[in-house]
Design brief:
single chain, alpha/beta, Metallo-beta-lactamase, Chain A, Rossmann fold, 2 domains, 7-stranded mixed β-sheet, 6-stranded mixed β-sheet, 7 helices, disordered C terminus
Amino acid sequence: MVLSVTDQGIYCAAGDFHIDPWRPVDRALITHGHADHARPGHRAYLATHAAAPVIRHRLGDVRIETIGYGEPRRIGDATVSFHPAGHVPGSAQIRVEVAGQVWVASGDYKTAPDGLSEPFEPVPCHGFITECTFGLPVFSWAPQAQVMADIDAWWAANAAEGRASVLGAYALGKAQRILANVDAAIGPILTHGAIEATNAVLRAQGLALPDTIQVTPETDPRDHPGALVLATPSALGTPWMRRFGPASTAFASGWMQLRGVRRRRAADRGFVLSDHADWDGLNTAIRATGAETVLVTHGYTAPFRRWLAEQGYDAHVLSTEYEGESLDTPDPTEEAAA
């Protein structure tokens, strides 16, 4: 078999490497920089040119090689290449070919372009490992332009009434996607320290983002009336928020599709915005691969596997330690201080 699972993670015996391993290994191929996929302790890392700076930012001076999209590399008896996943900047699906058999480990992905990440590219294969974070028909994303227009309208209305607009978003990917697509002319944009640290890494790679102001203990909101404040999810409802006085709070996540989750977050607004594929995106991506065997991981694995089996796939659940998009765990890039 091209890929199997060990106690450390997804493993290729022909090349003696792991993909996004969750325990330390000698050689790790990394799909992207979120902490459930890029973990510390590996002897050597391989990631795309665009993913490496964030991984270094998070993990320190690790031994990391980089590779371009579509560039084949021979590792032992396996040939690997990295292909755009559309999840966050630099994210990749990893294609592994051994003796004519091709498997793809997709990591996390979304199929709709976001104007920031490298757009998803289907990779033909015999076997496909897919996430299914949002693997139920109820999850169907509105066009990004519509969601951003809703965020702009909420922000502008709050600014007109003298309130700050505090929006919770992951520090890698979601926050920059919002920055790149909202109307920065509405007012100033303030950022949590973890978000601003990631902004600096991505700006250094040439990503165009509007000007932002990092929130520090000295920040006086009165100096920035009508601001949009991008906060990490765990900062919402904490003392960090008190400095903004009367403010409207919101959360950007695919989970905002579920009304019960919106109530549980105790935010004024929920914007349905995810860096993962929705139901249609998952099915479209899987069909485009031409794969006969599909392994599903992290998400609604049991119902999604059943659905795929009903469609004629050789479908199985693959147990991993990936988390996908969660409202109950810390931001996977939130190492920086506020």
